[in-house]
Amino acid sequence: MTDKDIFTIKPKEGEAWDVVIIGSGPAALTAAIYTTRGAASTLILGGESWGGQLMLTTTVDNFPGFPDGIQGPDLMNLMRKQAERFGAEFVQKNVETADLGKKPFELIADGKKYLSRTVIISTGASDKWLAIPGEKELVGRGVSTCAPCDAPFFKNKKVAVIGGGDSALTEALVLTKYATEVFIIHRRDQFRASAAMQQKVLDNKNIKILWNTEVTEIVGKDKVEKILIKSNKENTSGEMVLDGVFVAIGHVPESRVFKGHIELDEKGYIKVNDHTKTNIEGVFVAGEVHDQHYKQAITTAGFGCMAGMDVLRYLDKSVPSW
Ligand code: NDP
């Protein structure tokens, strides 16, 4: 008998799940490990492109337990395997609507209705865009938000990364493996990224940095040809001929589906009342859809653990301590 045989609990046709977890990043999958092991029937509505931001990154060096680092997608596959080991059911579909005004809660994904006694929202955050002319039009034709996915297309080419956080610096380092020239364009004269990441970039001779510079337009007919830039210190402007633009300016919370039911702050982050509770009894939240401070794989996994335990307490099930 496997753990899956022992732990799997499913509702009968037409009955409600104990918990539906929306999302499939570290918060969602950690929550599922806890709820399944606490004997709650658990469905993960994981989204069509499952796994969250770690699926788009390379080496993760700060997740405990991996002294030599681990590739982001490998880490997510391991987490998914662990959640499924205890019987979590995984549906790789996006939630289209969430009716949280009735009980059991009603969620629609790919046209199918799912009922649940509790919900954990762990939809994470998605890429923020510059919202400048040419950006949307040239996505996939030189404009990208994912260097690990697209860097090989820029072999021997010239590219720019926009942003000054850990994501931008990581993207720039990945790109140096392919592109001949990599520029980081940052709007201030100081990076936001960690000191360790800054040092790696400053030590890399293939990366050039344009400080106090903003991109005002991306120009190209069928592909990126150049960008228009302006210095926000000297009030000068100019252009750069290049082949690729990687936008890495942070993320926005994925909370649109819940607007109207769940209280959001002015930036769209879900408001938390008490630990992982939202304004609706029985609806909990975990990860980057509410956390704007830590935003690390390990903290989001921690929030998932907390939400899983809060769900078990709400359902009056005991929380296993092993
Ligand atoms: P951050 O919010 O940390 O950084 C965003 C960067 O983009 C900032 O430098 C910001 O500038 C700039 N920016 C934001 N909006 C604009 C705009 N409209 N125009 C131009 N520039 C803009 O986001 P990240 O995605 O880099 O990181 C998110 C979190 O994930 C962080 O906590 C980070 O530590 C973590 N992370 C960790 C990694 C690792 O440990 N390996 C890898 C990647 C991310 P300004 O500085 O002026 O505000």
How would you characterize this protein structure?
It comes from Candidatus Woesebacteria bacterium GW2011_GWB1_39_12. The structure is a single chain. The protein is α/β, with parallel strands linked by helices and 322 residues long. It folds into two domains: 3-126 and 251-317, FAD/NAD(P)-binding domain (3-Layer(bba) Sandwich), CATH 3.50.50; 129-247, FAD/NAD(P)-binding domain (3-Layer(bba) Sandwich), CATH 3.50.50.60. 22% of the residues lie in helices and 26% in strands. The chain has helices at residues 3-7, 26-37, 72-85, 147-150, 166-175, 195-203, 297-314, and strands at residues 17-22, 42-45, 59-60, 70-71, 89-91, 95-99, 105-109, 112-121, 125-127, 143-144, 158-162, 181-185, 207-210, 213-219, 226-231, 237-241, 244-247, 251-253, 283-285. The strands form five sheets. Strands 1, 2, 5, 6, 7, 8 and 19 form a seven-stranded mixed β-sheet that branches. The relative contact order is 0.18. The mean pLDDT is 95. NADPH dihydro-nicotinamide-adenine-dinucleotide phosphate is lined by residues 62, 130, 162-168, 170, 187-188, 192, 249-251, 295. NADPH dihydro-nicotinamide-adenine-dinucleotide phosphate binds next to helix 5.
Keywords:
single chain, 322 residues, alpha/beta, FAD/NAD(P)-binding domain, seven-stranded mixed β-sheet, five-stranded parallel β-sheet, 19 strands, binds NADPH dihydro-nicotinamide-adenine-dinucleotide phosphate, flavoprotein, Thioredoxin reductase
